[in-house]
Amino acid sequence: MKRFYSIVIVFSFLFIFGSAVKAEGQDVKIEPDIPKHDTEALFEEEKEFDSRELVIKFRNDATNLEKEAILKGFHVKKVDSQKVGNYHLVSVPKGTDLQLLADKFLKNKQVEYVEPNYEIESQYKPKDPKYSKQWYLKKLNMPKAWDISKGAAHVTVAVVDGGVQTNHPDLTGKIVKPYNAVTGGTTYPVDDHGTHVAGIIAATINKTGISGISPNVKIMPVNVFEGDFADSFIIADGITYAADSGADIINLSLGSYYYSSVIDSAISYAASKGIVVIAAAGNDDTNYKAYPAANDHVLGISATTKYDKITWFSNYGKYIDFSAPGEDIYSTVSRSRYDSYDGTSMASPVVAGVTALILSKNPYLSPSQVTGILKSSSVDLGKKKWDHFYGYGRVDAYRALSKTPAPMSSVSSSKALVENGKNKASISFTAPKGKTVSLYVQNSKGTVVRKLITNKVWTGGKVSASWNGKLDNGAYAGSGTYKIVAKVSHPKGTVYRTSSIKVTEKIKPDVAFSSSSTAYSPAVKANLSTSFHLNKSAKVSAAVYDARGKLVRTVWSNKSLSGGKRYVDWNGKDSKGYRVKDGIYYLKLNVIDSKKVKGKTKSYKVTIDTTTNGSISNTSQTYKLDGNNKSAARINLTEKSYLTVTVLDYQGKAVKQVISNKAYNAGTHTVYWDGKTSINSYSKEGNYSFLVEVRDSLGNKKSFKSSIFKIEDLIKPRIAGPNSAAVRSENPANISYTLLKAGNVEINIYKGSELVKTIMPRTAKPAGTFSFTWNGLDNSDQPVEDGAYTYQVKVSDPYNSETILAGTMNVALTVGITNPTSVPYYPEEQILSEVFYKLSNPAKVTVDILDQNGAQLANLVTNEQLEAGIQSFKLDRGLVIDPANDFLVYRITAVNAFGQTATSDGKLVKDIKPNWLTQEIRFIEDSVNKRLEVDATLLGDGEAKLLVYDNGLDLLNDGTAIESKVFPLADGLNHISDTKPLTSNLHYKIVYTNGSQSYSFMINEDNY
User: Fold this and answer.
1) What structural domains and CATH numbers belong to the chain?
2) Contact at 8 Å (CB) between 164 and 221?
3) 595: which of 129, 179, 414, 967 is 20 to 30 A away, CA to CA?
4) Largest CA distance in the chain
């Protein structure tokens, strides 16, 4: 496609469509000039746009996942997005037919609009600077306008254009929040066009260079150009940035003949925030619509000559709102230079500058009110009223400011106020609705001395107040001239109005104490500081008198004080520096003003009190501690006091604090103690007392003790310990117990009711933890039989109260032997058999081999001392045993340290396979591992449990099996098959259960 996009240098045009949308977050609805399905019109060949980019507007309810899926489906890549309007800029593969792709996008229900990313250029018509400089200022009546306002710093004009030279001599100090919409940064290439526009609006009046139309306002430079062009997406981003960054006016000296939805959306967003948007109409002498000047919410500006005629180049048409000088306009350019340019791009900032003056005078005007002022003040050119060339006329700054209403009225107030306690000055002014109002009085130094209204949101109309001459501190203002200041504030700016008032003070001096009396203890507090109110500046004398009226001390003598709340201090001492006695005194104040007028003497009663009293008596000299009774004492107080009561032991150490800084009125009060310590345990028998600390309201303190009282501990003895223990021949039982109070202790061992052993006869023991041991011997030092015994720990106190701690003692002195019932016996092998067994205790062991009739065939081990645990013995071929024996008997005899004997037998079986196994055991190779195969023929149903072990010791000691399976067995032949869990040789146990009978068989894979 052929890319063509002419850019118009839009000169300052201010247009407000209707009233501003109130809420910043409110959705802005726009209707595109070109229907969304007319993609042929959108992508005409003569239009200039980026051939590798599209602007996609999604529906507001489209989710991020939906948007990502849509873009991925069309093989496009997201480049950027707009904060407003749900617009996304995407890049497309090289050679893509944009119109065809747009048609495809629009078929998706979540896509609302698609358009090209238009290329927009800036135009101006430079001339040599040989014409008289800034002729347009006189045409706009600027000298008379500047007598009213040169602009205010709270007004900011955003120049969305090429980069403004921020350090130009005529622009230094007025740049705020610069932004480069191309890169997202704050720096940009400096541009002649953007700098020229900024100078027209706000060049400083500084005796050098030129003067801007509104020289005191701020400029927010927003660069949207990359070279000579800017695309619509970047421009929209620049407009949105200005709207979010505090701009009051946005100037757009740029444009094209192609409507852009994304720019329209950004403009509507700015308008919703109450921003005036002004744009150049274009420079092609045509009535074709130029955008953004033709957008809603934008003031479109045409250009006029010094003769108030339309310029030869200016566009015209229905979208023109105002006209302004746009030919031979002299202003700042880059590199700190100046030059003259032609174009509507120069007319637009003229209107932006005039609009800035209007908002400087009254920052509270809405965009529609600003438009109304421009309409009523512009010079009507061409046809009467509005026409296609001049709109509503050529702007005039002086007439515009003359028709701009003040944001608030002047302050109307009384010119004089004679203070006598009754007179009041009336004050009034008018303030706009919704603004914050304050009203206050300043003295000659500019200090606020009285606040009459503070930060009140006004409902509109007249504000009325009065002032009786009192300051914020309650005193009357002295004679002199004061300033009444009315303040109206709003985020758009703050406005002040003032009025002067002459005050004549005729108030009789007076002092007033805040109360009539107080009490004071010089022993506790260094000074008594007494407040009083002085109604005006005067001299004050202060003195202290005793109850008989005798002068005790002069504190002040004619001390000069300003009015308000003041303090006088007295340290409780007389004129000689001695502390006065307890009693009643009077602090008296006398006052006299500069006119020798005296006020009444005021008196303040002071009670000096440096002592406090109290006493305590025990209700009983003996405290019988039984868990229910409480020790008690009575405390007598002569005045309201704060008590802290602590129980002390015979050494004077604190046992427990029973009352802590608690207030009590005068009178008799009873204090109780439950006999417990601070850690909630009962106290020992002995002598105790109460310590009482009294503090009165003035801080005077006194401490005293009660007489000694004695505790008798009647609480049943308390003992704690375990409820069971065990005795082994190698490990006697050791039992700890704790006495919670002292007593006589005896410890015995019983079998049922029969005494077996006395561990400790009746013995006196203090409170604490103790222990005893028992080795299983009775009182005759003979070992007892294995079984359960009972130990008793009995404690009794001097008051014949006793407690018994009893527990079970399990005795197991006889050695326990655990061994297999049957073990394989191989007459043909080198090792006939090997038997593993387990001892419960150390013992001397003897192992014999017997024949089937019980006759001894061999002795393998004789009285060998072995430890508790797993042991073993072997039968080798050195033994002479008849191989015809089907089985042999092995007998293990163990004798413990007490001589107690235990015996256990087992069989050595030559053919160990039980009769229910009908086939030899076999291990079959398969593709995974060996598989165990066993056949069993049963009489009746049952089940077989297969346990697999990786070592023989676990099998013999019923250790943890590495695998366990249950096989249901039926009457007749059954086949058990199991794949080995490991490749190594394993040990197996098959447990066959039939009704109440259980049979087991062990298999060692090493034998197969």
Assistant:
1) 32-119 (3.30.70.80), 125-402 (3.40.50.200), 412-505 (2.60.40.4070), 511-608 (2.60.40.4070), 614-713 (2.60.40.2550), 719-812 (2.60.40.4070), 817-909 (2.60.40.2550), 922-1007 (2.60.40.2550)
2) yes
3) 414
4) 150
What is the spatial distance between Cα 413 and Cα 415, in angstroms, rounded to a whole number? 6
Tell me the C-alpha distance between 614 and 659, whole Å: 16
Active site residue 285: no
Q: What is the pLDDT of residues 512-564, one digit of tens each?
A: 998 999 999 999 999 999 999 999 999 999 999 999 999 999 999 999 999 99
Cα 197 to Cα 393: distance, rounded to the nearest angstrom: 21
Active-site residue identified among 154, 193, 669, 987: 193
Q: What are phi and psi of 497, to 5 degrees?
A: -135, 145
Catalytic residue from among 256, 268, 345, 631: 345
Collapsing DSSP to helix, strand or coil, 274 comes out as coil
Q: What amino acid is encoded at 963 in this protein? A: E
pLDDT tens, 901-929?
889 998 887 755 555 555 556 666 665 56
How do residues 947-993 score in pLDDT, each as one tens digit? 888 876 676 666 788 888 887 877 777 777 778 787 777 877 777 77
E strands, 379-516, in order = 412-413, 416-419, 425-431, 436-442, 448-457, 461-467, 480-490, 493-505, 511-513
For residue 63, give every residue at least 6 positions away whose Cβ sits within 8 Å of its Cβ, in sequence order, or none. none
pLDDT digits (tens, 9 = 90+) for 274-333: 999 999 999 999 999 999 999 999 999 999 999 999 999 999 999 999 999 999 999 999
Residues 613 and 703: their CA atoms lie apart, in Å, by: 9
Using an 8 Å Cβ cutoff, are 881 and 888 in contact?
Answer: yes
161 is catalytic: yes
| 193 catalytic residue (yes or no) | yes
User: For a pLDDT cut of 70, what percent of the chain falls above it?
Assistant: 89
Q: If DSSP codes are grouped into helix, strand and coil, which group holds residue 574?
A: coil
Residue in the block written with tokens 């000559």: 305
Give bridge partners of residue 749 from the DSSP assignment.
757, 791
Q: Which of 88, 149, 154, 161 is catalytic?
A: 161
Looking at the chain, the whole-number percentage of residues with pLDDT higher than 90 is 55
CA angle 404, 408, 409 (to 5 degrees): 100
Residue with tokens 């959108």: 42
Going by C-alpha positions, the residue among 714, 721, 706 that lies closest to residue 772 is 721
**pLDDT tens, position by position, 864-895:** 999 988 888 888 766 666 666 667 899 999 99
Whether the Cβ atoms of residue 378 and residue 351 lie closer than 8 Å to each other: no
Cα angle at 15 between 9 and 16, to 5 degrees?
A: 145
